[in-house]
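hiii so um. not sure if this is the right channel but i have a protein structure encoded as tokens and i wanna go backwards to a sequence. like what aa goes where. can anyone help
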């Protein structure tokens, strides 16, 4: 087992065959695979627990508007739709496996 500070560092270890896999948040891994469609990695067919994330900003933060603008960008919306689709597919697979 190895610990890295960033996902790219972990992927670099995987590429060098120094680790057998990478344990990271599913959303980050899905985004990495989305950004690098030619890599030969795939996500495991199971989840380890669940993790909820949020973005906390001060009430009057000037970043709120910029964040909202980014969320409304078509590429961000496409990514969210793709993640939701992958999530639903995974849930369908998981529910079919249960007796």
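sure thing!! here u go:
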């Amino acid at each position: 087992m190895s610990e890295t500070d960033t996902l790219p560092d972990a992927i670099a270890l995987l590429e060098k065959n120094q680790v057998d896999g990478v344990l990271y948040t599913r959303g980050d891994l899905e985004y990495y695979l989305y950004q690098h469609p030619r890599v030969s990695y795939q996500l495991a067919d199971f989840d380890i627990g669940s993790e909820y994330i949020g973005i906390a900003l001060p009430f009057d933060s000037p970043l709120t508007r910029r964040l909202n603008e980014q969320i409304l960008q078509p590429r961000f919306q496409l990514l969210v739709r793709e993640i939701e689709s992958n999530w639903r597919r995974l849930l369908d697979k998981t529910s079919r496996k249960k007796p």
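oh and Residues 23 and 48 are 9 Å apart (CA to CA).
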